[in-house]
Amino acid sequence: MTTTTVKYASQSVSRLYFIGALCLFVGQIVFGITLGLQYVIGDLFFPAIPFNIARMVHTNLLIVWLLMGFMGSAYYLIPEESETELHSPVLAKALFWIFLVAGALTILGYLLVPYATLAAATGNDFWATMGREFLEQPLPTKLGIVVVALGFLFNVSMTVLKGRKTAISLVLLMGLWGLALLFLFSFVNPSNLVRDKMYWWFVVHLWVEGVWELILGALLAFLLVKTTGVDREVIDKWLYLIITFALVTGILGTGHHFYFIGLPGYWQWVGSVFSALEPIPFFAMTLFAFNMVQRRRRDHPNQAAVLWTVGCAVMGFLGAGLWGFIHTLSPVNYYTHGTQVTAAHGHLAFYGAYVMVVIAMISYAMPILRGREANPPRAQAIEMWSFWVMSISMGVMVLALTGAGVLQVWLQRMPTDGAMSFMATQDQLRFFYWVRIAGGVGFLAGLVMYLWSFFVGPSADEAGVPAAASLQRA
Ligand code: HEM
Ligand code: HEM
Ligand SMILES: [Fe+2]
């Protein structure tokens, strides 16, 4: 284990973002397990924490911590790629605290005040933006997100402008700007339900199947450059290929959400054809990761980060590509729309692509931020175990939800007469819902292991002189 420090002192602001993100991640999972339990014990915590509130907390925490993870990753990556200090580390730190406090107040608002009261108290009558899944935030929070995003983009863009411009940093910037600009559609909320839904998907779909893929591609490329030492020329070519496929398929692929919401019929074709091609960029990411690792010029000492990077490319393909494809064709979606199949896909895709890429960045950067190139082998072993425990537990949850979804379609959606009612069907799915909880508890255990690995020092024989020195620096 050798000692290393960050190349640019200002990269260390990312540490704050990574710690914040991991804390909120724990909160997200605790609420996930609460939700899972409420599925089988209907009145659990009622009326203190109803299902709809817990769900909102679960999904909003997910989005907020992923954004924090992206920002932390950018603050780490951009100075290194641009070969210059961050434009303003003070601004980056200030925005972190603003974001954290605004996020915490919003979550407290959800938990302590009835949603309608919160809406009335925060100006929703004046400008209605609340009440849509993932975008439930009160108006002041949404405005706060815009301010934080603008400050963040100003900071990283100025850094790139004054420094070296690489393909990785430019693609990352495009993704981050796209993320912020598309969020503006969350302020457009017409009373016409069809148009409302359409603008909602402009945020949700064009995020995860558009601009976030650019962020994902750039972060994977950065991780692979650093851990494999393969030439940038090769890595850049893959990156361009991936983002081109992502945009060509993902933009018109939005049509897979327009089948049954009142938009013109041609979307059945456009949505089916283009979204059926959306797995291509995700598959390309898998090939990319394996290819680069095979061609590696060095064995990086941080094998845990390599595992998370390759794992992300594989699980992202399974969750987004495969589980997305199974319900994306219009004649299939006619039956599966809004069933547990959707939830299975939503979980595996978010975990595989975005949760895992943020963890991969944290696993790579955090040891360096703490003054060593990689964690001691004992800590890395625990980290790798946590990878398997989290990923297998997620697999259990997703298979349970897929089973539930298939049975739900069979009982409730397929029969032309004598279909089972929604609630009677849900009663038949109990077994799967219990298995989902088991998976969720396993997932939390994996996450705790991951956090624990940060506190594990070298074992007695690993703790040679250099290792002890590096620990002191940390
Ligand atoms: C990492 C990328 C992706 C993420 C994070 C993601 C996440 C999600 C989530 C959370 C939903 C549920 C939205 C809701 O609340 O209604 C959803 C719906 C959907 N996704 Fe994805 N997705 C991704 C990629 C894909 C891809 C590549 C495809 C197609 C190949 C796809 C096909 C679909 C379809 C068809 C629906 C609608 C399901 C329904 O009708 O109920 N997704 N996705
Ligand atoms: C990294 C881990 C997780 C991610 C990325 C995640 C993501 C999500 C997303 C995107 C949704 C909205 C899905 C949709 O509309 O289809 C959701 C809802 C939900 N999640 Fe999670 N989640 C995670 C962990 C968990 C865990 C551990 C549990 C419980 C054991 C859980 C239980 C639920 C439940 C019950 C819902 C509500 C589904 C419904 O409305 O019927 N989640 N989660
Ligand atoms: Fe989509």
Strand content: under 5%
The small molecules bound here are:
protoporphyrin IX containing FE, fe (ii) ion
- What is the structural class? mainly alpha
Output the CATH class name: Mainly Alpha
Series of secondary-structure elements, N-terminal to C-terminal: HHHHHHHHHHHHHHHHH
Helix count from the secondary structure assignment: 17
CATH superfamily: Cytochrome c oxidase-like, subunit I domain
Q: Would you count the extended β strands for me?
A: 0
CATH architecture: Up-down Bundle
CA distance, first residue to last residue: 13 Å
Choose one word for the global shape: globular
Keywords:
474 residues, mainly alpha, Cytochrome C Oxidase, Chain A, 17 helices, 75% helix, 0% strand, disordered C terminus, binds protoporphyrin IX containing FE, binds fe (ii) ion
